[in-house]
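Two proteins follow. First one:
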Amino acid sequence: MQEFLIPSMSCGGCASRIIQTLHNLDAGARVEVDLPNKTVRVESSQESAAVDAALKGAGYPPVKVQSIVKPASAGAGTRRSGCCCG
């Protein structure tokens, strides 16, 4: 899944246009919009560059968000403090 920050997304109309843009690019894409955080998550058969270009073309230049996926057992029993680095 690809995740993008869309700083210019400010309302439901913007979100609808973004969803429509991504479905025009890939009709089978799964799109999740988080309007308060201005993020869009996309599961698509299209490459990240194509998604980026489509969003730019629609007037919503995105910033790619690097997602970190932790294994299910990550950190189990190893943390000694509330800090993320253990």
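Second one, unrelated to the first:
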Amino acid sequence: MTDLLWQKPGVKLDTRIQQFCAGDDVILDREFFLFDIQASVAHAEGLQRIGILDADELAGIVHELEALAADFEAGRFVLDDRYEDGHSAIEARLIDRLGDTGRKIHTGRSRNDQVLVATRLWLKDRLARLLASCREAATVALHRAEAEALLPLPGYTHLQRAVVSSAGMWWSAWAEAFIDDATRARDTLAWVDANPLGSAAGYGVNLPLDRDHTTQALGFGRMQVSATYAQLSRGKFELAAIEALSSAMLDLRRLAWDLSLFTSAEFGFVALPAQYTTGSSIMPNKRNPDVIELMRASYASVAAGRTEIEHLLSLPSGYHRDLQFSKGAIFHAFGRGLGALELLPDLLRNMQWKPDAMRAALDPSMYATDLAIDLAREGVPFRDAYRQAADPARWNEGDADASLVARTSPGAAGDLRLDVLRERLDVLD
């Protein structure tokens, strides 16, 4: 490992303690490394603007940071246990290439300042991807709701056959769900779009750092003004990002449950694309819906990340090393969550209904609610209409198509109001 900036003379480094304190930083920082480099370029530009670096020194640092980014992406530079973390690796590279000029890069910074801005940029990137995935899933669902508005599909309550529903109602539900999820992702992205760079360890430094410049250079929507609040926001902003992700993942989990049921032999309503299934290693007759099962499972990682950060935040104000663990929490939450969500739109595009099986599952009892409403419309008090409609002797083979057309309450099959959803979705473009 390279020399530690913070190591004091005469203090022997205990390898086990250092490994414990460093944790998985080197591994996790691979995820944030390019963002750390990007922020370091902006920080160097800010130092030049206040006279800490001259023009030639800035040019050398920017050149070497860009070369390091290229080497990292190409695999020529590996962030490994030679370094304490990604920040020390950046500084070591600059010192190796530029000598004393490289040593100036840490002026006015703390390692916490570095990780805070790198993870903030990373969160912005992930929230943008979350927004895009939710918007795409909503677009597909809305398109299929329009195309399959009156395709009969059994509707269930308590996992029991209840009423005649439609593919259009099923699709419109997911369209609106993912529009809401996209809206929350967009709003959360706008909320966390605040530049913490230049807050040091939460108390500023004795330099007129050009934080307005770094805010603009890094594409932040605003500067996080209070250096101390920049520390208080660490964990709080991460928690908000995971909560936005969890909204979409909760919807994905329930959608995956539907598909798990609908693809089973007992239901037989849906055929999945072949690439979303795998063969059994022991049962030659099986094709298993592994992808949707893992989609369903992915919420667990998101929930775990949320819980980990929530428990980290039981701290007084100021920086605490506890917050180091928030890096792993957001990495695992978004790694699993986005991985699942980004597979969803193509699944929704390519899954196929089995209309014959869907119609065959509609039995006479599923028209009982229609009968009760029809009797009530004719003037029979609803309680009496309900009792009459509950009598199996009153049940007949119904007309699924007529039932759906007659379901004219707003949001039901006969009045899906898809134009309203389309307007909400268009605003997100």
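SUMMARY FIELD: Residues 231 and 320 are 9 Å apart (CA to CA). The longest helix spans residues 111-147.
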